[in-house]
Amino acid sequence: METKPADAQVAGSERESKAEREKGSKSPSKVIDANAARDAPKSTDPADVTAGAAQQAGLTSDEARARLDKFGSNSLPDTGAHPLRMALEKFLAPVPGMLEAAVVLEVVLGKYAEAAIIVFLLLFNAALGLFQESRAQATLTALKAKLALSASVRRDGKWKTVPAAELVPGDLVKLSLGGVVAADLKLTSGEILLDQSMLTGESVPIEGSANLQTYAGALVRRGEAEGVVTATGGRTKFGRTAELVRTAHVVSSQQKAVLRVVLNLAAVNGVVILMLVGYSWFIDMPVGEIIPLVLTAILASIPVALPATFTLASALGARALAQKGVLPTRLSAVDEAASIVVLCADKTGTLTRNALKVATVRPEPGFDEAHVLALAALASSDGGDDPVDGAIRSAAAGKPVPDAPKLVKFAAFDPAKKMSEATATGASGDAQRIVKGAFVVVVALAQSSPGAAVAAKELEGQGFRVLAVAAGSPTAMKLAGLIALSDPPRQDSAGLITELHGLGIRTVMVTGDAPATAAIVAKAVGLAGPICPPEPIPDAVRPEQFAVFAGVLPEDKYKLVKAFQTGGHAVGMCGDGANDAPALRQAQMGIAVSTATDVAKSAAGMVLTEPGLGGIVAAVKEGRTTFQRVLSYTLNSITKKTVQVLFLAVGLLMTGHAILTPMLMVLIMITGDFLGMALTTDNVRPSPAPNAWRIAPLTVAGVSMGLGELLFCSAILVFGFYRMGFAIGPLQTLAFVAIVFGNQATTYTNRERRHLWSSRPSSWLIASSTADILIASTLAVGGIAMAALPLWLVVSTLAAAAVFAVLLDLVKVPLFRRLAIT
Questions:
Q1: Could you give the angle at which helices 695-718 and 614-655 cross, rounded to 10 degrees?
Q2: TM spans, by residue (predicted)?
């Protein structure tokens, strides 16, 4: 998330921004104090902390031990799921439960070979699912790794280094250049420059002095200070972010789809199975035949490979994305990328470069741009990581001035004075004083033109951060000019937004900046529409209401994602800071940009490894490609489960016997379900618009295709029973061949929403289909595990299946069009 503490050097522009957010009621410094007070943890005992602050010698060892017992270790709790528990959960879902019941029945009936095959299928499903979840614990691990390993603390009147985990509220801690803030604390003395980008994602560090509240994870870029610990461990702002990341969760649409498909199939097939049992009793079928019939029907109704196929398709999509510079951290993110309808793009570091740059220079009369930059560079530090000084020195280097003054002495930026200054000598040897800082401060020390104030206000109104530069004799300085700083948009941002719009995705910008700054960036990247003012985000907000959400506080991004989801929108969320982690975790498609912190990367569903945002378009297209492959398999699975159960009923009515044995059904499961997983490699077109799992029309389409295949299989059975006069053994083999070949026909019709000849199947699909046909034919002709059939009959059945596929395809195209399955 973005927070925007004012850099004192640019207090003039920040005063305008903060005033807008606070309705003009507070000064900039008071706004900062108010924000710090608001965000400061309330979980520690105020008396303890006050006592620690009063004792400038710090705590005693006994006091520290007592508080450690009271508040606990300064570390995040280990909440990762045990691997054994994760593995056991794979066997408790609906599909595994059905398979486990089938195994029990097979063992009871003494069908140990069939039971072993089903156990293998069960373990295969569990292994693939466990692979997906093995990455889920990375987020909290990264958060814990970001805490400092040690800290300088005053104990028993002496400074000592202790493990960061031993810090307690009330400890007096020293912060030095290059150090990491190990706990939330309130500064008591000293002046430092704090880089909180790990927490906020912002490029501009903040100046810290007494009474400033800072947080665990911040880096000290300059200076030295002391502070009193106010919160540790899970009570820190960092810790609260970790807890929110742990609890933030959105159920995958794939998970919902699998459950609904399984329930739909179970409901329909359950009724058919009950009718089979009732009819079997009615015709006085022996119990020894009824039980295998029921077992066969149960096996026929289980979509064995459906969960595994979802996982495999996502894994293949993830591999394809990795080759394009996008790394999914959880497999479900590949599928979710297909469904997003709104993308929340973080301004800083996402739409912009997250690097300050001199946008324009407004010289005063008697000066030019090059001289203004040269003077400002003399009053800028040539070391450290101050982004303001770095931007100015970089701009000055691009416009060298031959007769620039020579630096004699430099005084670093003073947050109390809100300016830095330098002493230099001009070409004639005269002494010059140069100051750089907030406009209101510098203009009070120098002469300026009447239009200077108007120019400064104009630049601030355009969203720039404005610095003033003055130079001259120590007693008579003149305003040299104004320097406007900005964080420029990325070159690819506008093109990305246009391309996403063409894919049916609306992009909204989310920023902690004031509306004026946000409006400038929005215009530059092509975002047109109203700006949501800096106020609490409405619960029922819709993405089409606003193009920009300005003044967004750290906790608001998570609320914004939830608000969009409440309105039924699938959300993509970009971010780079640690405080973006909860929103990234909650969004269907959380995207961490290449410069993101480890925390943001771990919480996100996808991580961009290349600069810019072009990977988002690739992720959406690959997600939609994966969706189409999974949709084909799901449609095919519904078709197969429909025909297999109903075919048992037709066979029972026709012959009075079970037309398929449990072994034959297991073979159908292997040749059909798992070889059909090759659909995950099929050649498909990515959807032109966001996808959604529409289970009702999908079920209607699958059942309709299944009824068509049922007619084909029934016709083959009629031929074998009445024309050929087959006994039950060869008839069961013929039924097996009819279903295997019929499944091949529907696989090729279901894979293409247009006519089946509109696109070439993938090589893997063709190979698996060929293997499927050869295996079934070899078993049938050779009489392996079944009665033998003549070769001519197997070949004729295959030819009939090919003709059936073409006829069914003629019915499919208008049916799919009517059901809007694209």
A1: 40
A2: 115-131, 261-282, 294-322, 645-675, 763-785, 791-811
3-state secondary structure of 527: coil
Residue 78 has pLDDT above 90, yes or no: no
Cβ-proximal residues to 319 (8 Å cutoff; 6+ apart), any chain: none
β-pair type (589-592, 571-575): parallel
Tokens linked to 712: 């084909």
Shared domain for 479 and 520, answered yes or no, is: no
Helices 287-301 and 253-282 cross at an angle (nearest 10°) of 160
Residue 3 maps to a domain: no
Predicted TM-score (pTM) of the model is 0.70
Q: Which domain holds residue 400?
A: 357-486
Q: What is the distance between the alpha carbons of residues 341 and 330, in angstroms, rounded to a whole number?
A: 20
Could you tell me which residues come within 8 angstroms of residue 770 by beta carbon, excluding any fewer than 6 positions away?
none
Residue 128 contacts residue 308 (beta carbons within 8 Å): yes
674/553 same-domain check: no
Question: How far apart, in whole angstroms, are the C-alpha atoms of residue 591 and residue 291?
Answer: 52
Which pair of tokens denotes residue 454? Answer: 């108007």
Contact 376, 388 (CB under 8 A): no
CB atoms inside a 10 Å sphere around CB 285: 18
**Residues 465 and 603 grouped into a single domain:** no
What is the distance, to the nearest Å, from the Cα of residue 117 to the centroid of all Cα atoms in its chain? 37
Q: What is the CATH number of the domain that holds 195?
A: 2.70.150.10
Residues 728 and 762 both lie in one domain: yes
Q: Of 486, 504, 526, at which residue does a domain stop?
A: 486
- Measure the CA–CA gap between 484 and 13, rounded to whole angstroms: 10
Q: What stretches of 22-111 show up as alpha helix (H) in DSSP?
A: 28-39, 46-54, 61-71, 83-89, 94-108
Render 318-338 in DSSP notation, one character per residue: HHHHHTTTEEESSTHHHHHTT
Is 433 contained in some domain? yes
Does 614 map to a domain? no
Q: Contact 433/423 with Cβ under 8 angstroms?
A: yes
How many alpha carbons lie under 13 Å from residue 45 in its C-beta half-sphere? 11
State pLDDT tens for residues 555-579: 688 888 988 888 888 999 987 776 6
Q: What is the distance between the alpha carbons of residues 375 and 523, in angstroms, rounded to a whole number?
A: 32
Indicate the burial class of 161 (C-beta count within 10 angstroms; 0-12, 13-18, 19 or more).
Answer: exposed
Question: Which residues, in sequence order, are CB contacts of 332 under 8 Å at separation 6+?
Answer: 132, 252, 254, 255, 314, 605
* Domains in the chain, number: 4
Token duo for residue 537: 């985000």
Q: Which amino acid is at 30?
A: K
Q: What is the CATH number of the domain that holds 525?
A: 3.40.50.1000
- On whether both 675 and 740 belong to a single domain, the answer is yes
Distance between CA 441 and CA 439 in Å, rounded?
5
